[in-house]
């Protein structure tokens, strides 16, 4: 009798864009998961597990929670959801600019015929 070993396929990573970006931003600050969770108002006893579930994609936070996470991590909310690496870096770079420089950048993009949504002229 021959025995065939059937190898189960490896579980695909459930990590989401949000989870990957959240982890990168958290690690960049050197902030442990439990401290992040407590910073956004989660009970200390469950903070680390909850943050881990967000980072691994087991759960996706509601938008209000995602806003709190972004604020605690000092990143713009869109960065956490951006699935394009270059655009994500641009979001961080533009967010760090003073308001006057942001306006100048927006105006200079007009020379590339890029119009912000809602602008028709």
Summarize the structure.
Helix content is 59%, strand content 0%.
Report on the structure:
It is a single chain. By secondary structure, this protein is an all-alpha fold. 59% of the residues lie in helices and 0% in strands. The chain contains seven helices and no strands. Helix 1 packs across helix 3 (44-56) and helix 2 (33-39) crosses helix 3. The protein is elongated. Mean pLDDT is 87; it is low at 1-13.
Largest sheet: none
Q: What is the overall number of helices?
A: 7
Number of strands: 0
* Coarse morphology: elongated
Task: List the secondary-structure elements in sequence, H or E.
Answer: HHHHHHH
* Assembly form of the protein: single chain
Ranges where pLDDT stays below 50 over 5 or more residues in a row are: 1-13
Percentage beta strand: under 5%
Portion of residues in helices? 55-70%
**Radius of gyration, taken over Cα atoms and rounded to an integer in Å:** 20 Å
Report the structural category: mainly alpha
Span of the ends, CA to CA: 78 Å
Q: Tell me, rounded to a whole number, the average pLDDT.
A: 87
């Amino acid at each position: 009798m021959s025995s065939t070993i059937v190898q189960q396929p490896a579980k695909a990573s459930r990590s989401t864009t949000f989870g990957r970006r959240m982890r990168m931003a958290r690690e960049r600050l050197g902030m442990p998961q439990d401290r992040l969770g407590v910073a956004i108002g989660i009970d200390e006893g469950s903070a680390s597990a909850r943050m881990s579930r967000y980072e691994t994609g087991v759960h996706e936070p509601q938008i209000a929670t995602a806003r709190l996470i972004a604020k605690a991590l000092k990143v713009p909310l869109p960065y956490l959801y951006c699935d394009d690496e270059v655009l994500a870096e641009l979001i961080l770079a533009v967010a760090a600019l003073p308001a006057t420089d942001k306006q100048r950048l927006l105006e200079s993009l007009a020379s590339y015929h890029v119009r912000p949504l809602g602008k028709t002229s």
